[in-house]
Write a structure and sequence with these properties.
195 residues, alpha/beta, Rossmann fold, 6 helices, globular
Length: 195
């Protein structure tokens, strides 16, 4: 079994984006790095902050691109080239408006679903990476621009749900790395049903 070696979170760099819905991928990786007491290191060759952690006894590189969401594929392609990793060594963690806040879904394939960061990854890395989607819910006002919703700050109520989701995402990553995608999907995708 070829293990996942890179967990790449999608988000935007900078303080103004720190607690926004679009940064759910970054926030999930921050949780894993904090739990492992692993520092973040800027790596210019990848245009990303990276943190090397032990996941289920295996070295795994957490990656937060600084290229902004829509160009996340640049970092992924640079990593794949440098380490000679195929796309199936990557798991990408990102926000999903079609899932309720705090719901997680792990999958092995799928379209971009309107997510520009995922579209860029598909074009630069290929389609064989694993996807861990973290629900942020849909916009509450139908007249609101979608960009304003995903770049909006997470409410305290949703933050509590996301904090739980990040713990589950961490456990899911451990299963994915140590026991494979089927076991991880069985655990993650059935644990939290929409209420």
């Amino acid at each position: 079994m070829e293990r996942v070696r890179v967990i790449l979170g999608l988000g935007n760099p900078g303080a103004e984006y720190q607690r926004t819905r679009h940064n759910a991928g970054f926030l999930a990786l921050d949780h894993i790095a904090n739990a492992s007491a692993s520092p973040w290191v800027w790596e210019r060759r990848f245009q990303a902050d990276t943190s090397l952690v032990d996941v289920a006894g295996c070295p795994v590189l957490l990656v937060k691109p600084r290229t902004f969401v829509n160009r996340s594929g640049e970092t992924a392609a640079a990593l794949a080239h440098y380490y000679r990793f195929k796309a199936n060594r990557f798991c990408v963690v990102y926000d999903d408006i079609t899932l309720d806040p705090g719901r997680i879904k792990l999958s092995t394939s799928g379209s971009a679903g309107g997510h520009n960061g995922v579209a860029d990854l598909l074009s630069r890395l290929g389609s064989d990476f694993y996807r861990m989607r973290i629900g942020i819910g849909g916009k509450t006002n139908p007249r609101m621009d979608l960009k304003d919703w995903v770049l909006g700050k997470i409410s305290p109520e949703d933050q509590a749900k996301l904090d739980e989701a990040f713990i589950e995402a961490h456990l899911g990553m451990e299963l994915l790395v140590s026991q494979g995608v089927e076991r991880a999907m069985n655990k993650i995708n059935t644990k939290r049903k929409a209420s």
